[in-house]
Design a protein that fits this description.
It is built from twelve helices and six strands. By secondary structure, it is α/β, with parallel strands linked by helices. It folds into three domains: 79 residues, Helix Hairpins; 118 residues, 3-Layer(aba) Sandwich (Rossmann fold); 31 residues, no CATH class.
Amino acid sequence: MAISLFLVLLVIVGGVVGYVFIEGVPAFDALYMTVITVATVGFTETFELSTAGRAFTMLLIVSGLGVVLFAVGTFIDFVVEGHFRRMVEGRRMASDIGHLNKHQIVAGMGRVGSVVARVLADEGARFVVVDHDVDRVKSARANGWLIVHGDASDEGVLASAGIERAYSLITALDSDAANLFVTVTARAMNSELFIVARSSHESTESKLLAAGADRIMTPNVLGGRRMANMVLHPAVSDYLDLVSHGDSVEYRMQDVPLSTASSLVGKSANRFGIRASGT
């Protein structure tokens, strides 16, 4: 679209300059003559054309008509192939993200990030996914998730995801270097942000913490420990799976904020009386 509009403008400017130079007419008369010539509407000429002027007019008709047809074809292609629809959807999504506050941001829709996003969606959390891969962006849109297409380490992309208003960022990119860069950038943009960073190597954990991450997750280390615990402490492992994993969980651990005036402040869980009261 931008190219076609540029070509139309170029033809008009060229026509004005040509008529002014060849016929010595005022710029407005030259503009009027150029427009009616390119549009081929056939209005009366505003000034008498010389032989050179007629030759220039013929050239302007041919070139102008070609550019106009190209512009019309581009516009039809723009609408028919869905570019216009995607542009409208993009603006609507940007508006939806703009209304979010205290939301979560997931950087990366790979093997880890896609699971993170699905858990957040299942929990009803408000979140935005950031990824540069076109197929992953399409997948996120198909799931109805808010998505920003771009590099998560770019300040403009993070700003589009509402980083200044977000509560947390989960950077789950495949590269430790990329997660480190995202962490540094995000921390600089929001000092209050709670950042959870993925690490592929234990040696990177200290660097991520120094860069501003609040929590580090090393999937292969965590997976290995859990597998060992399944053998060494199966009962404990089964309980942890019950309260924190799976799609059909009956029990969950949850943080419940209490006011300073609450009667539960200072009491241990067995003195709450919740189970006894049945609530």
